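Onboarding guide, step 5: your first structure request.
Type a short instruction followed by the sequence, for example:

Predict the 3D structure of this protein.
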Amino acid sequence: MYFPFNQSGSKGYSADYEKRMLNWADSVLAANSDRKAILVAHSTLSRPKVTTSGDKPGDGDNSQQSNFTKQGKGIYEMAKNHPNVFLMLGGHIAGEGFRKDTHNGNVIKTYLSDYQSRQSPPYSGAKDRNGGSGTMRLMRLNKTKQKISILTFTPQPNGTVIKEEDGDSKFTDALYN
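The system replies with structure tokens like these:
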């Protein structure tokens, strides 16, 4: 389920649209309570202060939880009442982040991944930003092993791949708790 950008305090924000969007999502999640749900929004989390992952690969490790953005908090407040929601994804703020919230025994993990401000490899320090040079995040969900594996990488024109190895770019975690 996808939520377009509509964040309180931002240009074009509509409280009425937010209310209708959250009511719609609430009804879809309730009608499909027997199915696992992943919620994707343009804006869910801010980047934690301990990471440098904004304009180049960082040194984060998921040890400090990110804060919700205004839009992310509103979506979470609706979603936390649906035990079928287990994952929320978003971007908008350059970098990587993570948080884990539990409500009435249901765990929802939220990830930030946004590479649009990334410099081109080899990250010489120049402010050569070109949309992240194609940096991507691969998420593998393994229901059998109950694991989610994350890998962040940048394909190169010569066919090689630069893999990010820091703790908020490459990791494995429990899928549902």
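Each response can be followed by summary notes, for example: The first strand starts at residue 2 and ends at 3.
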